[in-house]
């Protein structure tokens, strides 16, 4: 299903639901149940670089490896991580990952 995704390049399993739950503080049962729809929502809320950073950081890659991949220094990486996780914690972004809000949005399409 998501075999060729950015997430699967760095993670062996589709564990982004658990990681999103961890960072957004939303119960994993309340997050969109369809992995494909959830990943699409994640892609729509993050830039390509942010998504790649999220996948790499979740795979517990070293900061040095991430700096080399993005061609940035350690301070810039630290700022990028801070910005990414701050974005994931924003209410306007978090509400898009909730199953109830997703179901209501689909009703109006």
List keywords for this structure.
mainly alpha; 8 helices; 67% helix; single chain; 0% strand; 109 residues
How does this structure look, described?
The protein is mostly helical and 109 residues long. The protein has one domain. The chain is 67% helix and 0% strand. It is built from eight helices and no strands. The chain has helices at residues 6-10, 16-24, 35-45, 48-58, 63-70, 74-89, 91-94, 99-107. The longest helix has 16 residues, at 74-89. It starts with 5 loop residues before the first helix and ends with a helix. The model has no long low-confidence stretch (mean pLDDT 87).
Q: Summary?
A:
67% of the residues lie in helices and 0% in strands. The protein has 109 residues and is mainly α.
Give me the count of strands.
Answer: 0
The gross shape turns out to be globular
**How much β-strand is present in the residues?**
under 5%
Q: Which secondary-structure class do the elements indicate? A: mainly alpha
Q: How many discrete domains?
A: 1
The rounded Rg comes to: 14 Å
Quick one: biggest sheet?
none
Low-confidence stretches: none
By DSSP (H or I, 4+ residues per run), the number of helices equals 8
Quick check: average pLDDT?
Answer: 87
**Proportion in helices:** 55-70%
Gap between N and C termini: 24 Å
Helix and strand element order: HHHHHHHH
């Amino acid at each position: 299903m998501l075999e060729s995704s950015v997430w699967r390049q760095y993670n062996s399993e589709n564990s982004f639901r658990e990681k999103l739950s961890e960072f957004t503080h939303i119960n994993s049962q309340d997050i969109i149940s369809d992995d494909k729809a959830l990943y699409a929502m994640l892609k729509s809320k993050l830039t390509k670089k942010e998504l790649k950073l999220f996948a790499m950081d979740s795979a517990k890659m070293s900061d040095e490896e991430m700096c080399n991949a993005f061609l940035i220094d350690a301070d810039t990486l630290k700022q990028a991580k801070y910005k990414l996780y701050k974005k994931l914690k924003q209410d306007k972004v978090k509400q898009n990952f909730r199953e109830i809000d997703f179901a209501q949005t689909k009703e109006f399409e």
